[in-house]
Amino acid sequence: MPALHKLLHSRIPGLPPGKHSDGGGLWLHKRDDGGAQWFMRVTVHGRRREMGLGRLSDVSLKEARLAAEKCRALVREGKDPIKERERQRREAARADNTLRTVAEDAFEARKAELRKDGKAGRWFSPLELHVLPKLGKVPVEDVNQQDIKETLAPIWHTKADTARKAMNRLNIVFKHAAALGLDVDLQSTDKARALLGKSRHQPTNIVAMDWRDVPAFYASLAEPTITHLALKLLILTGTRSKPLRFLHEDHIDGETWIIPGELMKGLEGSTQDFRVPLSSESQSVIEQVRPRARDGYLFPSVRKGVISDATMARLMERREMPERPHGFRSSLRTWLSEATDAPPDVAETVLAHATGSAVERAYRRTDFLEQRRALMERWAQHVTGNSGKLVQFALPLNVAET
């Protein structure tokens, strides 16, 4: 057998990114972002298998070695450690098959698909807040459409989006329960929807400022405060609040802001970065806020972390304005339609909206960066009150941009 215990506890923090063997099939994978996971490589019946043993932050070197030895013992018995772990999980679920237990297990199984392994808990929160307080202790096999209907009825017409998410999560939980071998009704959520009927909730759009009024509001942001500067950059770039609030000095590359995929709205777990062209005015705002940076973040809060999602909205509320910060994306999009001849694909890309079918996006290898740069420079001129003329979009549309 190959040598065991190659790694030293004291040297693990200093190991470079990559895969590091401890011997006997136990490996530590350190990622570029600083995270690290233990995994086990075994060969069972001539088939090579890899089994995760947990994050380094949760599992010590000693614990990983104990888990690895258990895996090797199972292999010596001719058993597949991964299948054995799955069997044990199924048995545990049958022994404690309340809706809460199965829901938590389903959440654990989906974490790899969620941003940052689902640490924010947003996927689970609709269940935690609106379903589990009433049904969490009920065996999942006993939960029926009537139970679901009575549980979600209080929010079905008042918090329609939350109720929809809770229902969708429940459907996933029931499928997970069925995969565990539990006798559940996979149609219970559809039946509950039929009992609840169509939601009467009428969604309202966020109030947006007319693009012609944006220059006056921009001019009113005259104080060099974090909030004023954040609102200025939000208006100039047309980005969402989250990537702006978490803007780090490392995200700025000359005249371009590169938003990491994990900060972009879209598919959870997305790793695709998005480039935002920075106008001269945007770069000026960034230079003004740079001296206030803390830990590299350009918009820190007063105490710790970054400014909250409500910080900019409160400024507009105090001014008794009906509009909200997110509405400036609509202002920009309307300006693109009414004051420029930017093609729809380019205009939608300004707001980081996906356009076309999946096949079209696969073949389109451009993010129209230079076309957007010209548009955003012109938007900045409008916002700062320097011009209101029609923008002629003269760049050729068939230029491949990589």
UniProtKB/TrEMBL annotation:
Q: What range(s) does the Tyr recombinase domain occupy?
A: 204-376
Read off the Pfam families from this record.
Answer: Arm-DNA-bind_3, Phage_int_M, Phage_integrase
> Which Gene Ontology BP terms does the record give?
DNA integration; DNA recombination
Q: Which domain of life is it from?
A: Bacteria
What InterPro entries does its record include?
A: DNA_brk_join_enz, Integrase-like_cat_sf, Integrase_catalytic, Integrase_DNA-bd_sf, Integrase_DNA_bind_dom, Integrase_recombinase_N, Phage_int_M, Phage_Integrase
Which key words tag this protein in UniProt? DNA integration, DNA recombination, DNA-binding
GO MF terms here are: DNA binding
| Assigned protein family | Belongs to the 'phage' integrase family.
* UniProt name for this protein: Integrase
